[in-house]
Structure formats: C-alpha cells, structure tokens
Amino acid sequence: MSSATAIARSPALPFVLGVGTLVVALAILELVVSLGLVNPFVMPMPTEVFAALPRLIVEEHAFQRFLLTATEALTAGLLVAIVGIAAGALLYRFVLLRQATETWVAAAASAPTVLLYPLFLVIFGRNSATIVAMGFVAGLAPIILKTLEGLCTTRSVLINVGRSFNLTPSQQFRKILFPAALPTIFVGLRIGLIFTMLNIVGVEFLINFGGLGQLINEMADRYDIPGTYAAILFVVLVSVLVFILIERLERWLRPE
Amino acid sequence: MDATAAATASATKSGTERSAAAPDPILSVDRLVKRFDTREGLVTAVDGLSLTVAKGEFVGVIGPSGCGKSTLFNVIGGLIEADEGTVTVAGQPVNGPHPAIGMLFQDESTFPWRTVIDNVAFPLEIAHVPKAERHDRARHFVRLVGLDGFEKRYPAELSGGMRQRVSMARTLAAQPEIMLMDEPFAALDEQTRLLLGDKLLQIQQELRQTTLLITHSITEAVQLSDRILVMTYRPGKVKRMVTIELPRPRSSEIVSSDEFGHYVARIWSDLREEATKGLRDDEAHLLRGQHP
C-alpha cells in the first residue's frame, strides 16, 4: 500500500480536512480584510477576533454570561422537551383534538414568535423568566409535530405484536410506541432546540438582559466589532454543548 | 390421541369433506364469517369457514392471494372481530388477543431498539419475570432458533432470516399453547425458507407445539404440516383438507421424494383452479381501471 492510499484511508482524514478548510477560510478572510477589500467595521480580521477573547473573559465576564445563557437554554430545552412530547402524545391519543389543532400547531411552527417578546416582558418582567419563556414558545411546535409524526408512523406490525402480547395501553406506549417514535422525536428536538437557542440569544439581545445576547449587544453598542464576533463564538459554544447533550441522550435512550 | 393418529383418522375422510375437524381440538373455528366494507361495497373475505386443530398438531392453511388467509390469521389472533361464527381455545371463546395464542407476523417485527436477548425476553418482561430469570429463559429460546452468540446484537446487525428467527423465539418465549404464523418466511429467499422450515420442524418436533401456519407456498405447507387446509378464492371457504402422511421426523430433504411431489401436485391441482379465478378477477379489475 502506498503512503498516499494510507492517508486516504485514515479515519482522521475527514477531521483534518474539516479543520483545514476552516483554517484556510479564515486565512483568506484575514487576507481580504488586511488588503482593505472589506471594511473592518463590517468584518474584523479573524486574528483580532481571537485576540479579543481574553479581554471578553477577563473584563466582560464571558464565562459567567456563557453559564447564564447555557442554563437558560437547558432550562427552556428541558421544559420544551417535556411539554412538547407530552402534547404530541396527547394529540396522538385523541384523534378529535389532533384534527382540531394540528393545522394551528403547524402554523405556529413557522410563526416569528420572537415578535411576542413585549407581551412576555409585561407578563414576566425584564428577567431570565421572560428569556426562558420565549425560548420555550419558539421550540414547542416542531417538537409536538415530530412527536405526533413519530407516533403515527410506528409500523402497524409492531403495534400488533404488542396487542398479541396483551399489553395494557400504558405498556403499549412505553414499550413500543415511544421507543419506535424516538428517532423522529429527536429530529423534532433538534429543530425545536435550534429555535429555542435563537430566541434565547435574540431576546437577551433585544431586552438587554442576561448572558451572551446582552454581551453582543454591548459590544456592538461600543463599536467593538472584534468583541462582537468573539461574543458570537461563545454562543456557538452553547449550541455545540446543547447538541452534544442531545446526541448523548439519544444514544443512551435508543442504542442500536 | 397423538397428532399422527389424529391426522390418520381424519385422512380417511379427507378429500370430500368440507369441514376440517380434528378430534379433541385445542383450537376450533366454527362457521367464521368476516366481511369488509370497501369502495365496491361489502366484500366477504371469509365465508363460513370451520376448522379444528388438535393439540400438538401442525396445520397448514394455503390459498391463492386474496382468499382471506390473513383475515383468518387476524381473527384467530383476536386482532379483528369476526362478523359471525366463533373461535374457541380449549373451549373458551376468543374475544381479543388470547394468552394461549402466540402470533408470528409476516412483516419484520423485531424491535430495532432492543438486543436479540431483550427482544426474546420481551413477553417475560411484560409478565414481570425478574431480569436474571427472564434472560436465562430467553437464552434457551435463542439457542432453540440457533442464534446463540448473537444475544447482544441489534436486529440491524442481522440478516432477514435471522430477524425472523428472533421474532419466532420471542413468540415461543411466551410459551403459547398455540402458535399462529402468517407467512413468516414470505419475505425470504427460497433457500433460506427451506432451511428455516427445517429449523421450524426441529423446534416443532422438540416442543410438540400446536401450530397453525398460513402460507402461499405449497412446498412449505407440505414440508411442515400434518394436515393442509386448501382455501377457495374469495370468499374464503374450505376447498379441501389434505392429510400429509409423510414420515416424521422430517427435514428439507423430503422435498426430493416421490410422495412429496405427489402431495404438491395434488394441492396444486386444487389451488390452480382457485388461483386462476383470482388472476381473472384481478385482470377484470385492471380492465375496469381499478386496483385489484
């Protein structure tokens, strides 16, 4: 085997290639900005963004803000998962309820719920509760819809196996319908939690309260463009964290 | 009375008889009628079908596509209700799924999120058998279907034939008095089907499991059964009951014997007439632009 094929077959290759692509893209960006082809007030040089990170951590308490945003995201995520899955199961169980509300839920999934923030400000005040509530509202519809879809598309032979073993309705749900629907439910969780994350950071920004969203707001207000982008990197970190958690949870709940 | 004697007793009357009686039956189906509401009006799927199965007996049910075989399977299994007639197990009427009846389905029915051993232990888990004990008992059935060594694997890692054996072991683990199977090997290739037939024969001979096998494969029916019920095309009725007097224990080698060929030819001559009706019916539907 030649060394070229050995490299081509290496399991580390996709990772190396991915990181390499990012590095090359950043280097091109660096070059473009330093040559003055792009206004540095629109897009700072990547090296300046990385240089702003220590400042953000020391002076702006970026880690505490990261923790606050992550806590809000996890709280909203947990709430939206519990309520969304339960509501999906209810709509599956009661056909009339499903027929009556499914279109509304689907409409709500594409509605710009972030615009409701003044309402929530009035109800909860300018605090974390408003942010969590906004995240919750944004992520709910896709989770309900995907849970419903997962339950409805469970293969009828699996349901019949359960019936042939005389399962109670609760056993039928816990042992067959729910695990069969899990992969689709997780698709819903991924979509829903993206909306939740967007809304949490967005509302932090809008009401100038809380963690990373507020930090972005403040950095932008000060025209600290590298700082703004560096704060956005922390937001990316929160979503990476949330998605790693979801993946772990799925593998634990449904190994195969 | 043992199954062979029962089969011999009914053999003397076979051929002309319309009812299909076994002495001292554990399962009996009496004048069963099932109709379905379709776009073309009420269709009678099964019409006045009677059948009995003795303890330890292996009965095959064969018929052309659309003869109501699967309807019969679902009614006996208690998954759908009959319009007329009764199904009884050891004298008790069947209304809904009956614990004495184990079902093996045509479609792939393993739980993909459970390992082989947890699939097989499923009915024991439902019966609240403690984990260590249910795994011990499940392991026995895994071995019985020849899947030892695969206990920790997931269905996605197995072939279609192996998955169907997992389902079979799962049904057997509930230790039903009657095993009801609906074309369990239909989705598999011919060679796997013959070998799985061997496995089934071996299991049946070991457990003396009362079995009702629905199939459209004549060789499969003759290879496995003590008696074969040939059904008519829609509405499904008993066309003939054929007693298979091939010696037991059997294996797939029996397929090459003269007697085997004789039974296959005889059943085919009955079935051919019905299958032709079915084909003509389908073609007539297509001519009228409807799906059969």
Quickly give the CATH architecture of the largest domain in chain A. Answer: Orthogonal Bundle
What percentage of the residues of chain A does DSSP assign to strands (E)?
under 5%
* Beta-strand content of chain B: 15-25%
Greatest interface and its participating residue counts: A-B, 19 and 23 residues
Helix percentage range of chain A: over 70%
Overall residue-averaged pLDDT value of chain B:
85
Q: How many E strands of chain A?
A: 0
Uncertain segments of chain B of ≥5 residues (pLDDT<50)?
A: 1-19
Helix run count of chain A: 11
Tell me the domain tally of chain A: 2
Looking at CATH, which topology of the largest domain in chain A would you report? MetI-like fold
Mean pLDDT of chain A: 90
Mind summarizing the main beta sheet of chain B?
6 strands, mixed
Apparent shape of chain A? globular
Side-by-side strand order of the widest sheet of chain B? 6-7-8-3-9-10
* Helical stretch tally of chain B: 9
> CATH superfamily membership of the largest domain in chain A, which one?
MetI-like
Shape of chain B: globular
Structural account:
The complex is a heterodimer of chains A (256) and B (292). Chain A has helices spanning 3-8, 13-34, 46-59, 62-93, 95-109, 117-124, 128-152, 156-164, 169-207, 212-221, 225-253. Chain A is 82% helix and 0% strand. By secondary structure, chain A is mostly helical. The radius of gyration of chain A is 23 Å and the shape is globular. Chain B folds into 2 domains: 3-100 and 181-287, P-loop containing nucleotide triphosphate hydrolases (Rossmann fold), CATH 3.40.50.300; 106-175, no CATH class. Helices cover 38% and strands 23% of the residues of chain B. Chain B has a 6-stranded mixed sheet with strand order 6-7-8-3-9-10, with helices on both faces. Chain B has a 4-stranded antiparallel sheet with strand order 2-1-4-5, covered by helices on one side. In chain B, helix 5 (131-144) crosses helix 6 and helix 8 (218-224) runs antiparallel to helix 9 (258-287). The A-B interface holds A 155, 157-158, 160-161, 163-167, 171, 175-176, 179-180, 182, 254-256 and B 77-79, 97, 99, 101-103, 105, 107-109, 111-113, 122-123, 125-126, 154-156, 174.
